[in-house]
From TrEMBL:
<keyword id="KW-0812">Transmembrane</keyword>
<dbReference type="GO" id="GO:0050821">
    <property type="term" value="P:protein stabilization"/>
</dbReference>
<keyword id="KW-0732">Signal</keyword>
<dbReference type="GO" id="GO:0045944">
    <property type="term" value="P:positive regulation of transcription by RNA polymerase II"/>
</dbReference>
<keyword id="KW-0325">Glycoprotein</keyword>
<dbReference type="GO" id="GO:0061462">
    <property type="term" value="P:protein localization to lysosome"/>
</dbReference>
<keyword id="KW-0472">Membrane</keyword>
<comment type="similarity">
    <text>Belongs to the GLMP family.</text>
</comment>
<dbReference type="InterPro" id="IPR029382">
    <property type="entry name" value="NCU-G1"/>
</dbReference>
<feature type="signal peptide">
    <location>
        <begin position="1"/>
        <end position="23"/>
    </location>
</feature>
<dbReference type="Pfam" id="PF15065">
    <property type="entry name" value="NCU-G1"/>
</dbReference>
<dbReference type="GO" id="GO:0005765">
    <property type="term" value="C:lysosomal membrane"/>
</dbReference>
<dbReference type="GO" id="GO:0005634">
    <property type="term" value="C:nucleus"/>
</dbReference>
<comment type="function">
    <text>Required to protect lysosomal transporter MFSD1 from lysosomal proteolysis and for MFSD1 lysosomal localization.</text>
</comment>
<feature type="transmembrane region" description="Helical">
    <location>
        <begin position="367"/>
        <end position="393"/>
    </location>
</feature>
<keyword id="KW-0458">Lysosome</keyword>
<keyword id="KW-1133">Transmembrane helix</keyword>
Length: 405
């Protein structure tokens, strides 16, 4: 029996690993370039263009810190579609139409994600909250009013990363005296899994954004932070909030939930668009289980939500953004009763994946599969072995008694 399980475990492992490798190798590949588009002397007017070329299609991710930090996701049916910008118009009071793609008919799906505000509130007294008292909010940080460093020098063509780093210039309380808020962008050429926690699984049709608060001085002893995210969807489509739970937390210890905003499935090969995150943030540059910060999401707001301007979403979708598009907004808060993790190191990092297609989903890892099979298989093997032993013993006894008869 022991021999059996000793062989069973590596065997299963091998089988599962091989099937995983095959799945990865068969993945879609894209040729990705990151480029900061120059055009303005103001460093805050950053425009980062991620171009991901696939077979007969190109994904354009346009990231910008003009107004609220925004990313446009454009799916085009052409390997040579090009992004065009009219900077004069973009920085003017009416930016509608300042960003477009040529040839005009190549865009088959466009959507956007906007990071509008960071809220701070006192989160210590949970009992007071449950008594219906309002969470004591400090004045929010409006990300549209931030001043952002030039993204150009942060572009890393090898790692396919770039970083938007900003401070609140009005900053009456001096919270940004030594602190920054950043959005770190990572593009991918093919499917895989991130090394650092939360070890998100990605596809070639997605990109990652990491929201980082570094050294922003909290305004109270028990401050918690909350990020407001707004999504823009074409007319007719709308985003829904889903929770995906798993019994396997091997890749992200203690976190069993993935949350995602997914648009309606489409009738073509593109699939829906999504915005996905694990319900955890981390309170240190070296993310680990010990500095995990539980993150909660609040109900998705869809009724009559308007997107405050300016942003490149207004520049791309045009003036009628509110009427012709479906806008949804959600608050994601970091930390609860789990102590003052942010206060310890003054650091918070939270990652989300965005892109096209069915959102990636963790399958059971080879390890968990092997454990399950062994756990279920062992009693069966024991039972079989037991029956054989009993059978054999009976026979033996039978043959021993025979001469007496
Ligand atoms: C940008 O700066 C350059 C030199 O630093 C100057 O020649 C140019 O006129 C400036 N452009 C704008 C739009 O301010
Ligand atoms: C790409 O498009 C061309 C012409 O439309 C078509 O012949 C070809 O089969 C397409 N290739 C793929 C991989 O879809
Ligand atoms: C850019 O926009 C400005 C203002 O709307 C317009 O006057 C100008 O002709 C545009 N430039 C191009 C190249 O389209
Ligand atoms: C929490 O709130 C309750 C009710 O408002 C109050 O009685 C209690 O003193 C508060 N506790 C702390 C630690 O502030
Ligand atoms: C952007 O960075 C590249 C390479 O680091 C450099 O060659 C280029 O001059 C920079 N452009 C601006 C506008 O700073
Ligand atoms: C770009 O990223 C690679 C891989 O992470 C790293 O080795 C390299 O030092 C980075 N380059 C710059 C200029 O930061
Ligand atoms: C600013 O932050 C750095 C670490 O990021 C720290 O070493 C330094 O002491 C801080 N300065 C002030 C004035 O808080
Ligand atoms: C924060 O904590 C310090 C020391 O524990 C205390 O002196 C101070 O009054 C507290 N501030 C607030 C706003 O509760
Ligand atoms: C797919 O949807 C588009 C609009 O989203 C519609 O114009 C087209 O007719 C649909 N095609 C099919 C086969 O249903
Ligand atoms: C949305 O706005 C319309 C028109 O302004 C109004 O009739 C409707 O009651 C609003 N809905 C909600 C949920 O506020
Ligand atoms: C997020 O929370 C803040 C503070 O409670 C509120 O003003 C804002 O409307 C909320 N946004 C969403 C999308 O729920
Ligand atoms: C990525 O997009 C391409 C082109 O639409 C599609 O063929 C492929 O299946 C997609 N891959 C995933 C994992 O969604």
């Amino acid at each position: 029996m022991l021999e059996g399980s000793r062989l069973l475990l590596p065997g299963l492992w091998l089988l599962a690993s091989v099937s995983c490798l095959l799945g990865d190798a068969a993945g879609y590949r894209r040729k990705v370039t990151l480029q900061s588009i120059p055009g303005s002397n103001s460093s805050s007017a950053n425009l980062l263009h991620v171009r991901a070329v696939g077979r007969n299609n190109t994904l354009h991710y346009v990231w910008s810190s003009i107004g609220a930090p925004t990313v446009l996701l454009l799916y085009t049916r052409s390997e040579s579609s090009a992004l065009r910008v009219n900077w004069t118009k973009l920085l003017s009071a009416s930016p509608a139409g300042a960003i477009w793609v040529e040839p005009p008919g190549s865009v088959v799906y466009s959507t956007a994600v906007v990071f509008t505000k960071v809220f701070e509130y006192n989160g210590a007294n949970v009992s007071a909250l449950s008594k219906g008292q309002e969470e004591p909010f400090y004045p929010p940080y409006d990300l549209a009013g931030f001043s952002w460093q030039s993204v150009n020098h942060t572009v890393n063509q090898t790692a396919l990363t770039a970083k938007f780093q900003g401070v609140d210039t009005s900053d009456p309380g001096g919270a940004f005296h030594n602190g920054t808020i950043s959005f770190q962008v990572t593009a991918y050429e093919q499917g895989g899994r991130d090394g650092p926690l939360p070890r998100l699984l990605h596809t070639a049709n997605s990109s990652k954004v990491e929201f980082i608060m570094d050294n922003v001085a909290p305004r109270g002893n028990s401050s918690r932070f909350m990020l407001e995210v707004v999504t823009v969807e074409e007319k007719g489509g709308h985003k829904r909030l889903q929770s995906v739970r798993s019994i396997d937390d091997e890749y992200t210890p203690t976190i069993f939930e993935m949350a995602q905003l997914v648009s309606e499935p489409r009738n073509d090969s593109i699939g829906p668009s999504f915005f996905q995150w694990k319900t955890t943030a981390y309170g240190s540059r070296e993310a680990s289980r010990e500095n995990a910060i539980r993150c909660r999401y609040h109900p998705l707001q869809t009724a009559n939500w308007t997107l405050p301007g300016p942003s490149i979403a207004h520049a791309y979708f045009g003036e009628g953004l509110g009427r012709s598009h479906h806008i949804a907004a959600i608050n994601i808060s970091f930390g609860g009763e789990d102590g003052e993790v942010y206060a310890e190191k003054g650091y918070l990092s939270w990652s989300a994946l965005l892109g096209f297609g069915t959102p990636p989903k963790d399958a059971f890892s080879p390890l968990v599969m092997a454990i399950v099979v062994v756990a279920l298989g062992t009693p069966v093997v024991l039972l079989l072995a037991g029956s054989l032993v009993v059978l054999f013993a009976r026979r033996k006894r039978h043959s021993q008694y025979e001469p007496i008869n």
